[in-house]
Amino acid sequence: MTPACAAGLCGRHWAAWAMSLATSLPMPFATALATSLAAGVMSPGAAAAPPLVELATEPLGAACMPYPDALRAAAAVVSTPSGRAVFQAGARPASWSGSFTRSALSLDASGTPQISAPQWDAAALLDALPDAAALRRIYTSRLELGVRVTVPLAWDALGAAQRAALNRPPPPARPVSDGKGEQRLAWLRGDRGQEERQFRRRASILGDAVNSVPVYAGAPPAGGAAGNGGAGSDSYRAYYDSNQSRRPVVYLGANDGMLHAFDAASGAEIFAYVPEALFPMLNRLPDRAYVHRAYVDGPAAVADALLAGTWKTVLVSAMGAGAQGVFALDVTSPETFPLGGGALWEFTDRDDDAIGNVVSAPQIARLRLRPGAEDYRHFALMSGGLNNHAPDGNADAANTSALFLLALDKPAGEPWRLNRNYYRLPVPAGEPGRVNALSAPALVVDGSGALRFAYAGDLQGKLWRFDFSGGAPWRGAAEGPVFVARDAQGVRQAITGQPRAVIAPDGGYLILFGTGQLFGAGDRDPARYAQQSFYAVLDGNPGSGTGGAGGRSELAERSLEGLPGAPLLELRGRTFSYGSGGKQGWYVDFAGTASGERSISGAALTQGQVFFNTVLTGASYCAPVASRSYAMDALTGLAPGSEGLPLSGESTGELVADHIPGAPATVVSGAAPAGGQAGGRTAVSKRIAAVNVGARIPGALPSARTRAVVAAGRAGWREVANWRELHQAARARAAPPGQRETPREAQR
Question: What pLDDT is attached to residue 357?
Answer without folding.
Answer: 97
